[in-house]
Amino acid sequence: MKICIDPGHGGADSGAVGTEPFRLEEKDFNLSLALLLEEELEERGHWTIMTRRRDRSLSLPARANVSNRTGADLFVSIHANAAGNPAVKGMEVYHFPGSKAGKAAATRILDSLVSSFPTHSNRGVKEANFAVLRLTDMTAVLIETEFITNPKQLQFLADVENQKKMAAAIADGIEAIV
Ligand SMILES: [Zn+2]
């Protein structure tokens, strides 16, 4: 399968910022997990393209264009979530409203994530008119891994072993899409 991996935010756009128990910017977590996902998918024989491989700004249309012009079968945007209430936690995956293929892909990926991390809350598959979901020509999902604003979940996200396990779970979910 041809998969376009999009590490959300970057450069001047840090995305969400967690500060407890230490500072973690979403853009850095997203890139770290995305590079591990790239490695995991390449090892499994898939063809991948990254929208960014370093800390740089990239518009939402530019992200979709990378995916569209390379003819990817699947677009996967990687994010961490944020909420005003530090107790909020859980995993969720978005697809474009009304997209059956997007819903199926989001369901497989979220199912795989929550089965790999059974202690994490399943917030479900959701629809959103996000630019990267709207402007991409192929099946597209946006993964909100966990809440960077929750101190316990920030520690979870920052741990490279957890990131490797997340990358494997996302790859399993991608391979379950038929
Ligand atoms: Zn984000």
Note the main attributes of this structure.
alpha/beta; Aminopeptidase; 6-stranded mixed sheet; two-stranded antiparallel sheet; binds zinc ion
The CATH H-level superfamily is: Zn-dependent exopeptidases
% residues in beta strands: 15-25%
Category by helix and strand content = alpha/beta
Rounded to the nearest angstrom, the distance between the terminal CA atoms is 10 Å
State the CATH architecture.
3-Layer(aba) Sandwich
- DSSP strand count: 8
Cofactors and ligands = zinc ion
Name of the level-1 CATH class: Alpha Beta
Brief digest:
By secondary structure, the chain is of the alpha/beta class.
List the helices and strands and how they pair.
Elements lengths: L1 E6 L9 E2 L5 E2 H18 L3 E4 L9 H10 L4 E8 L9 E5 L4 H17 L5 E6 L3 H5 L3 E9 L3 H8 L1 H16 L3
Parallel strand pairs: 1-4, 1-5, 5-8, 6-7
Antiparallel strand pairs: 2-3, 6-8
Helix pairs in contact: 1-6, 3-6
The structure holds zinc ion (ZN).
The site of zinc ion has 5 residues, from loops.
